Structures are given as structure tokens and as C-alpha cells.
Amino acid sequence: MRRALSIAVTVGVAAGALATAPLISANAASAGDPFAMTTGLYVNPSSPSARWVAADPDHADAAAIRAKISTVPMARWFTGTSDAQIGPAVAAYTGTAADAGDKLPVLVAYNLPGRDACGGESSGGAADAAAYHQWISTFAAAIGDRPAIVIIEPDSLGDFECMTPAQITERNSLLTFAGRMFAEKAPNTWAYLDAANPNWVAPTVVAKRLKAAGLSRVRGFAVNVSNYVDTDRATQYASQIRDHLGTGTPYVIDTSRNGNGYDGQWCNPAGRRLGARSTADPAALHLWIKNPGNSDGACGIAPSTPAGVFDPALAVRLINGR
């Protein structure tokens, strides 16, 4: 998953498409409150770190990874390749969360065509727009009336520099469609569009991109997904985006790996640390969206670990801050 190092300062080729974007109203897509319907965030017993601990319980690092990572609520990522049958997979996950004492699951939809378009470490996604329509519609319908939080398509609004105007238009259309599907088919879901991070896209630019991508159809936006920006700076960035939107739109901050802040590197940098644990406070929603220990790509301190693969050595470094 790509996280650029420089801030974009112009909208560029997308400006014409953005100029006609409708104004949004805060909470326009809200229906049921998933927090009021549940008893806390769901801890996935089959997260990548939990599966590793279960497979190697006698490893010297197993106890630390269990205590510091695998028992913390975090998002479950769904892609076109990770779950061949997206409907049954989403239904099973949200159903298991409900059966675990009415817990609230956090899901990530990550299957946009041309995903990670300008980065490449997490390339892939649905084959075309029609395939994505089917996939995301099935995803939303599988949640149904169950309460959930969904982060829609990390990377999607930061990767414009290598895209054509037609590709940008299609991407905005697909994101708008995704928001509509969750609003229509999953009324007790709070969905958030990804809004990059302060090292990637300027607040004024991402605000325009959010509007063009259908922000009015979802609960709000998410910042710092899979990145390392400290919470104070991420909060300032989110507040600046809201200022440019002209609304009080809710937002989420990914705190999974931001304990030591950002050091100029986005791909498996050394010296980072776990951030504050997920909170169930809608007024200050901090979530572990990235799964700590999952590689950003074959780079940094994990040059042979592909993106999305759990690496216990990465996990231990995040625990110890080294």
C-alpha cells in the first residue's frame, strides 16, 4: 500500500470533475447508530497476528504479540482475492461479531479497479467497473441490518498523479456507487471514505476529492490509514479537511502504528511503535485499521515480505519501538 512522501498542492486534471461536485451535509447518510446497537468493538480471533500466535504458541515472541496486538480490536480487510465468495465471507464475519456478545466489527473494502494505482505494492483490485459494482453491492448486502463500521478503499483518493481524467472520473463514480450501496443495503453501517494523510495530499485538495467521490452518501472520512502520522497531527489534518468541506463531517483516525509518529518513510520503516488502542467513542473515533505486523510491501525493514503478509519481526519492532 502506497503512502506518498510529498504533499500534492494542485488538483490538476481532476479540477473540472470536482467543480460540479454537490455540497455535502454532515451525517447525511446516518441511519442506525452502530455503537448504540453493540457492546464494544469486536476482537477478531482469526486476525493475521492471532493466526500466527495460534500456529506457533511456543515462539519466544508469541506472548507479547498476543498481549499487545492480537487481542486488540482491529479491522478485517476484504479484497477480491482474500475472499473468493465475498457475500458469505462478510456475512460470516459480521454474524460472528454479533454472536460474540453484540460486538461491533470494523471492515475494510479494498478491491477498487487499479487499486494502489501509482504505488504498486498493493496493486490489483476488481477487473473492471462492472465487477466492482457486483462485488461492493454484494459486500453491502451481506452486512444487511447488522451494525458495522466500513472503511471504503484506502489509497483511492491519494493516487491521482499517474491517472488520466477518464480514470479519475471512473474512480469517483465507483466510490460514489460504493457509498450508495452501504446507505441503501446496510442502514446500520457507518461508512467512511479514505482521505489519505498529511504527507500525501493537501487538505484543500482531498476535501474536493471527497466531495467528488460521494462523501454526502457516507458517514465521514478516514485519515492516516496504514500510515504512521501521530494522532495530534492527524487530528489537525482531519480538522483542516473539515474546514474546507464547510461541515462538521465525522472522521476516523488509524492509530495502529503511530505511537512514534512519522519519520519520512511510508514502507516498513524502523523505529515505529504501536499507537493508542481502538476506542469505541464515536466523538473521537480512533481505530486500528491497518493490522500491526502486516507488511506495507517488500521494502524497508521487511524487504522480502509482500504487502499484507504478517511478519512477526515487524510486529515485535512495533511493540518495542525499534
From TrEMBL:
Top EC class of this enzyme: hydrolase
Superkingdom assignment: Bacteria
Transmembrane helix in keyword set: no
Coiled-coil portions: none
UniProt-recorded Gene Ontology molecular function terms: hydrolase activity, hydrolyzing O-glycosyl compounds
Residues annotated as signal peptide: 1-31
Enzyme active site: D155, D296
PROSITE patterns: GLYCOSYL_HYDROL_F6_2
InterPro entries assigned to the protein according to its UniProt record, in alphabetical order: Beta_cellobiohydrolase, Beta_cellobiohydrolase_sf, Glyco_hydro_6_CS
GO biological process: cellulose catabolic process
Residues where substrate binds: W77, W200, N227, W266, K290
E.C. designation(s): 3.2.1.-
PANTHER family named among the record's database cross-references: 1,4-BETA-D-GLUCAN CELLOBIOHYDROLASE C-RELATED (PTHR34876:SF4), PTHR34876
Descriptive protein name: Glucanase
